[in-house]
Every structure is written in structure tokens, then in C-alpha cells.
Amino acid sequence: WITKIFGLTFGIKLLEKGEEAAVKAYEKLGEILPEAVDIKQEEDEHEHTLLSMIKEERLEYVGSIVLGLNDALVELTGALAGLTFALQNTDLIALTGLITGIAASFSMAASEYLSTAAESSKKYAVKSSIYTGSAYILTVFLLILPYLLMHNPFLSLLTTIIIAILIIAFFNFYVSVAKDLNFIKRFTEMSVISLGVALLTFVISFGIRSFWGIEI
User: Fold this and answer.
1) Where does residue 33 rank: exposed (0-12), middle (13-18), buried (19+ CB within 10 A)?
2) Is the pTM for the entire model greater than 0.85?
3) What's residue 174's pLDDT?
4) What are the distances in angstroms from CA 181 to CA 64, 161, 185, 187?
């Protein structure tokens, strides 16, 4: 099921990470039989060689997915934070956020197509834009969902931030396993940027609302 949903590369590498007991067994055996260390090294080399032969489309477009996902997280968490304080009405916030998010997803997909088409084939550019737009719009719906289900705008914002953190954690875990990257570093960087923008926008919205004295 893991390989069917998340791909063969992710499934195999996730299983590899569960081989800690086997690694320890090899190390203990190596104290008695030095040949066991060589066997372990050969096994690792064979695994990496076989994995490098697997070509999965979703991994080829990880950059496009990151672009759509990260842009939606940064832009929409910031926008929702600002709208929460400015409007303080979940229905208005959800409507405004949804319109903004859908328009931005189409804009981002179009920009990704034009950018990629200038550097590679149009077929690759089309797929790249689809992955970017899909990642963006899926993130938009997940972030706006609390405002559709709750009536307290500040509780909705808190839930949205938690969802954003979970999205960042899940995606970076997937990429870190599939591409052998540092999970903590990527997760921290993406979280700081997304939540930092949300906080900054919230503060700016507070200033604008106070300056103009607008009440809705």
C-alpha cells in the first residue's frame, strides 16, 4: 500500500530505514567475522545501484510540487492571518481566502508553464504546471477548511497553522526519505518561512486596521 500510494522509491527507502536491527547484527558479526562488514558494504552498494535505476515521474517533478506547496503555505497562511484580524468573520475569510487561493493557483501554474517551457520541452512544462497548480490548490483547500467548519476566526487560524505545520512535516518527510535529504533542516527552514510570513502579515493587518479604524 505504501508503494502504491507514495511510490516504489519511497517504499523501498522507508523499509531501508527500518533495517537498524540488521545493521547492528552485521556490526556484531563483523567483530567475529570481518567478511560480514564487506557483505554489508556490498549490500548497500547493490541497493543504491538498483534504486538509481528506478525512474518515477512524481520524483522528477518534486521541484514543481515544492513550488506550489511552499508558495501556497507562505502566501495563504499570511493572507489568512491578515484576514482573520481584519475581518473576524469566518465566512468572509473563507470566501476571500478561497477566491485568492484559486486565482493564485492558476497564476502560479501559468507562471511555472512559461518558465519551464523556456528551458525545456512543452510536454514537460505542461506536466510541471499541473503538478504546481495541483499542489497549490490542494494546500489552499486544506488551509481554508477550518474556516468552513468553525465559527471562531482565531481558533480557525490556530487550526490552519497546525494543518500548515503538518503539511510541511509530511511533505518534507516524504522528500527526505525518497531523496535522502535532511528532514530536520528542510522542515525547520520551511516552517520558519511560512509561519514567519503569517506572523508578519498578522502584525501588518493589526496596524492597518488600527490606523484606518475599520470595523466589520
Assistant:
1) exposed
2) no
3) 79
4) 17, 25, 9, 11
- Is the alpha carbon torsion for 24, 13, 172, 175 positive or negative? positive
DSSP 8-state assignment for residue 184: H
How many Å apart are CA 11 and CA 114, to the nearest integer?
A: 33
SS3 state at 67? helix
Using alpha carbons, select from 24, 105, 81 the residue that is nearest to residue 198.
Answer: 81
3-class DSSP string for 26-59: HHHHHHHCCHHHHHHHHHHHHHHHHHHHCCCHHH
Residue 143 has what pLDDT? 93
* 34-76 residue pLDDT tens: 676 666 677 666 666 666 656 666 666 777 777 788 788 888 8
pLDDT of residue 85: 79
At 127, list the grid cell. Answer: 506536466
DSSP for 100-164, please give it: HHHHHHHHHHHHHHHHHHTTS-HHHHHHHHHHHHHHHHHHHHHHHHHHHH-S-HHHHHHHHHHHH
